[in-house]
Design a protein that fits this description.
By secondary structure, the chain is an alpha+beta fold. 43% of the residues lie in helices and 11% in strands. A hairpin with a 2-residue loop joins strand 1 and strand 2. The longest helix has 15 residues.
């Protein structure tokens, strides 16, 4: 028995409309479905097309991408994440963009601590963290060689 079949027509419509908003789907909200079967088929079709998972907990349903994203990532990496990059203290940091962080934030202040050509060791002494390096290299803000 499909978990969605335990819901009322109005609950199915609400679930569908909530999924459109929560996942920014390019679909038109519904006021009601013609039948319970039509509602379930439409929800399952949308879930399949957009990689969503239907979840029903205590009579409340939701279409979520979290489980689908997790499954997709696990499949792509064989269930394992790759090792975190290692940044030796002697490696040189190159700034690729001006400070992209929001002014007034701690991240903005830390990014201001970078100097083009400084070493990882110098950056650590200036208050930056290895997490900062990972984030900023992943986002293309800096390069470390």
């Amino acid at each position: 028995m499909n978990a969605l079949s335990t819901l009322t027509l109005s609950a199915l419509a609400a679930t569908f409309n909530d999924a459109i908003v929560a996942n920014s789907l390019p679909l038109t909200p519904v006021t009601k479905f013609a039948s319970k079967d039509a509602a379930i088929k439409r929800i399952e079709k949308v879930a399949a097309e957009y990689g969503l998972t239907a979840v029903v907990v205590d009579g409340v349903a939701a279409l979520t991408a979290k489980a689908a994203k997790k499954a997709k990532a696990a499949k792509a990496t064989g269930g394992k994440r790759g090792p975190a990059p290692e940044f030796g203290d002697h490696m040189i940091i190159s700034l690729l963009v001006a400070n992209p962080k929001r002014k007034g934030t701690k991240a903005f202040a830390r990014y201001a601590g970078y100097t083009d050509g400084m070493t990882v060791g110098q950056a650590l002494e200036a208050g930056l963290t290895r997490d900062d390096f990972r984030w900023d290299t992943d986002k293309g803000h800096i390069a470390i060689k």
